[in-house]
Design a protein that fits this description.
heterodimer; A: 380 residues; alpha/beta; six-stranded mixed beta sheet; three-stranded parallel beta sheet; 9 strands; 13% strand; disordered N terminus; B: 278 residues; mainly alpha; two-stranded antiparallel sheet; 13 helices; 76% helix; 1% strand; globular
Chain lengths: 380, 278
C-alpha cells in the first residue's frame, strides 16, 4: 500500500526534473461542481488513475449530482475502511478476488436494484458469469473494468539474453535456465499472493484454486527455484514505473499496468520497448466491480452513477483513457482502434477460453497461502 | 488548580493509553467472523483464546517477534554508536555553535517522514543516483542491488531514529561536571582512561534512554522495512499488518500487538531500575 502511494506521489514528482524518463503521475483531477445549487453529493472511491475525468464532469452536468471523487491505491486500504463501517462512500470499486467476494460475504455491500440500472443489460453475460464465483447471482456488483495477469517484458533484451526462450509462456520466468539468463536484465514479481500463486499452480498443471497443502508446496518450490534470480518483489505500482524506465526486463504483473508502462515508455522516448505476454498456460482473469457499501449515505445516486457508467459511449471513453477493457460489448466500436485491436488489452475470444478466475478461500487456506508467499519472499 | 492537574493527567492517560489498550485486548479475545466489523465481541461469542494460542504456538509469529527485537536491537546499537560522538561533540562545541548544531540535528523533522524515506528509494533504486553515479564513474558495470536490502533497512532506521538517540545523550553529557574529567587528567590519567572511567560511566543513564527511545519504536516499525527492507523481512510490524489487512483477522493482529507490548515492557522496567539505583 505504502509503496504504491510513494511510488505514485513522492518518487515521480520530485525526480521528474532530474530523470527525464521518469513517468509523470497523471491524476484524475476532481471536477468542480457545475451548479451552485448542487445539493446531492455522491462519494466515489476508486483506484488511482482509473477514470476518464470527462465522464465525471458529464455525470454532474446531466444529473446535477455533485461527485466527490476519492482514490485508493491498494485493496487493503479500501477493505480496511469498509470493514470498520461508516466509510461514507456511495460507490466503491473492489477487485473481484479477494476483496469483492469477501465484502459480499461479510454483508458489507448493498444488493443492487436492477430496475434502477437500466443499462445493466449492456454487460457481456459471459463475463458476468465469470464473476459469479465471487458473487452468486451477480447481486452486488456491475463490472467496471477487467484484465489478466501476465508478464511485462522487454522483447529485445529477452531475445538477446535467451534467444530460445518462448515469448508466450510463464516458462520465461519459472524455468530456472531462463530465469538464470534473464536475471542480468532484471526480473521482478508483484507482491501479491493471490495474483501470483494461482498462475504458478496453473503453469504446474494443477488447480489454481487448490487448498491442498501438497499443491501449494509445489507452487512454492517452483517459485523458490527462481527466487535467487528475482531482483524485486514489490507493489505492482512500483513495477509499472520501473518497467517503463527499463529497470526490469521480465515482470509478472497486471495487464493494464504493462500497457500503461508501454505508453509511458513511448512518451519518454528512450527506446525502451515493452510487450505484454498473457501466458499460454492460461491467464488469471480479474474484475474490478462497481459496488455500493451497505451503509452508503446516498444509494439512489450511487445506482444512477453505475447506470450512467454502463453506457457504451461513457465506457469507451474510460477504456480509451486507462487502457483496460470494459465489459460493455456495444462500446467496442467507439474505442480507439489501437486499443480495441490490441489483443493485450482485449483478449481474443480464443484467449478468453484459456483464462481462469480464482475463488474465495476459507480463512485457514488463505492464511496458508499468505504464509507460503511469505516464505517465497524471504527465500526460505 | 493543584488538585486539577493530576486529575487532568489521569484523564489523559485513561483516554489515550488505557482505553486503546483495553480495546486492543478485547479485540484479541474476540472471534474472527465475516461481517462489518470482521469480529464478534467476547460477550457475544464468548472469550476466545485462539488468537493468543495461535500467536504463541506458531513459530512464524514467534520468529517475527524475535526478528523485530533483533532488528530493533541492531538499529538502536548503531544509533548509539553514531550518536555518542555526536553528543560529545555537541557538548564540546563553542556555546554559540550549540544552538545552530542542535537546530541542524532537528532539521529533518521539518520534512514529512514518508518523503524522506521516499528520497532514500530515489537514491538507492537501480536507476537511482547512487547507481547512476557509480556507473558513470565506471566503478560498476551493472546496478548494485541497494534497495530492498538489509543495509538499506538499517540505513533507513539510522536516518529516522538518530536524533532520538543524540538528544538524551546530549542532555546527560552536558550536565556532567567538567571538573571530574579535569581532576582525572590532573591525576595522570591518559585521555583514553579519562573517557573510559569517567565520561562513559557518567553517560550510562543517557545511553540507556537513547537506546530505549530507538529500540521501542523500531521494534514495531512497519514503514521502513516495508519500503526499504528485503522482501519477507520477518518483522512483527509487517506480520501484524498482514493479519489485519490481508487476512482480515483482527483478533490475531490484536493478540500480536499485545504480545509485542508485553515484550517491550521488560526493557522499560529494566531502565526504570537503572534509574532508581543511581
Amino acid at each position: 500500500m505504502l509503496r504504491r502511494l510513494l511510488a505514485a506521489v513522492l518518487l515521480t514528482a520530485p525526480f521528474v526534473a532530474l530523470q527525464p524518463g521518469a513517468a509523470s503521475a497523471q491524476q484524475a483531477t476532481p471536477p468542480q461542481a457545475t451548479s451552485p445549487q448542487a445539493q446531492t453529493v455522491l462519494n466515489v472511491y476508486n483506484w488511482s488513475d482509473y477514470i476518464d475525468p470527462y465522464a465525471i464532469a458529464r455525470f454532474q452536468r446531466e444529473t446535477g449530482i455533485r461527485v466527490r471523487y476519492d482514490v485508493f491505491d491498494s485493496l487493503e486500504t479500501l477493505e480496511g475502511k469498509l470493514s470498520a463501517g461508516r466509510s461514507g462512500y456511495d460507490v466503491v470499486v473492489p477487485t473481484s478476488e479477494p476483496s469483492f467476494s469477501r465484502l459480499v460475504r461479510a454483508g458489507a455491500l448493498r444488493p443492487l436494484d436492477r430496475s434502477a440500472i437500466r443499462n445493466w443489460g449492456n454487460q457481456d453475460p459471459a463475463l458476468l458469469r465469470q464473476v459469479e464465483s465471487s458473487d452468486p447471482g451477480n447481486r452486488h456488483g456491475a463490472i467496471y473494468l477487467y484484465g489478466t495477469i501476465g508478464l511485462g517484458i522487454r522483447p529485445d533484451k529477452v531475445r538477446e539474453l535467451a534467444p530460445d526462450a518462448p515469448l508466450d509462456s510463464l516458462d520465461l520466468l519459472l524455468k530456472p535456465e531462463n530465469a538464470r539468463r534473464l536475471a542480468r536484465c532484471g526480473i521482478a514479481v508483484m507482491d501479491s499472493a493471490i495474483d501470483v500463486l494461482p498462475s504458478v499452480l496453473r503453469w504446474l498443471g494443477r488447480d489454481p484454486n487448490t487448498t491442498e497443502p501438497r499443491d501449494l508446496r509445489a507452487a512454492e518450490d517452483a517459485l523458490l527455484a527462481v527466487r535467487p534470480q528475482i531482483r524485486a518483489i514489490t507493489a505492482s505500482g512500483n513495477l509499472m514505473d520501473a518497467l517503463a524506465n527499463g529497470e526490469y526486463c521480465v515482470v509478472l504483473t497486471y495487464s493494464g499496468d504493462v500497457i500503461q508502462a508501454q505508453a509511458r515508455a513511448r512518451e519518454a522516448g528512450r527506446g525502451v520497448q515493452i510487450g505484454y505476454v498473457a501466458p499460454k498456460e492460461g491467464a488469471q482473469l480479474w474484475f474490478d466491480m462497481l459496488a455500493i457499501p451497505a451503509d452508503a449515505p446516498n444509494p439512489e445516486a450511487a445506482q444512477r452513477f453505475i447506470d450512467f457508467l454502463l453506457q457504451p459511449d461513457v465506457m469507451a471513453g474510460i477504456t480509451n483513457q486507462v487502457r483496460y477493457p470494459n465489459a460493455v460489448p456495444a462500446s467496442r466500436p467507439l474505442v480507439e482502434a489501437a486499443v480495441r485491436d490490441d489483443p493485450n488489452v482485449y483478449p481474443t475470444a480464443e484467449a478468453l477460453t484459456r483464462t481462469f478466475t480464482v475463488n474465495a478461500l476459507a480463512p485457514a487456506a488463505e492464511r496458508a497461502r499468505s504464509r507460503s508467499w511469505g516464505r517465497f519472499k524471504a527465500g526460505r | 488548580m493543584r488538585r486539577l492537574l493530576p486529575l487532568a493527567g489521569g484523564a489523559w492517560l485513561a483516554a489515550f493509553v488505557a482505553a486503546p489498550l483495553l480495546v486492543v485486548l478485547v479485540l484479541a479475545l474476540s472471534t474472527a467472523a465475516e461481517g462489518v466489523p470482521p469480529f464478534a465481541l467476547p460477550w457475544v461469542e464468548g472469550v476466545n483464546l485462539e488468537a493468543f494460542a495461535l500467536v504463541l504456538t506458531d513459530p512464524f509469529y514467534v520468529e517475527s517477534l524475535g526478528g523485530a527485537l533483533l532488528v530493533a536491537g541492531g538499529a538502536a546499537t548503531l544509533c548509539l554508536l553514531l550518536a555518542f560522538p555526536m553528543a560529545l561533540g555537541l557538548t564540546r562545541a563553542r556555546p554559540s555553535w550549540r544552538g545552530p548544531l542542535l537546530f541542524a540535528l532537528l532539521l529533518p523533522f521539518w520534512t514529512g517522514f514518508l518523503p524522506r524515506i521516499g528520497a532514500w528509494i530515489g537514491l538507492l533504486r537501480d536507476e537511482g543516483w547512487v547507481n547512476t553515479v557509480l556507473e558513470n564513474l565506471g566503478l560498476i558495470s551493472a546496478p548494485l542491488p541497494l534497495l530492498y536490502s538489509w543495509p538499506a533497512l538499517f540505513l533507513g532506521m539510522l536516518h529516522a531514529y538518530l536524533p532520538f538517540a543524540v538528544l538524551p545523550l546530549y542532555a546527560s553529557l552536558s550536565r556532567r561536571d567538567p571538573a571530574l574529567e579535569e581532576a582525572a587528567a590532573d591525576l595522570g590519567a591518559t585521555p583514553w582512561t579519562v573517557f573510559r572511567s569517567v565520561t562513559l560511566p557518567l553517560a550510562i543513564p543517557g545511553a540507556a534512554a537513547a537506546f530505549l527511545l530507538v529500540f521501542i519504536p523500531a521494534a514495531g516499525e512497519y514503514v521502513i522495512p516495508e519500503l526499504l527492507g528485503p522482501p519477507g523481512t520477518p518483522m512483527v510490524g509487517r506480520v501484524l499488518w498482514q493479519e489485519f489487512f490481508q487476512n482480515r483477522d483482527w483478533p490475531t493482529a490484536a493478540a500480536l500487538a499485545v504480545l509485542l507490548l508485553a515484550l517491550l515492557l521488560a526493557p522499560i522496567r529494566l531502565f526504570q531500575r537503572l534509574g532508581t539505583s543511581r
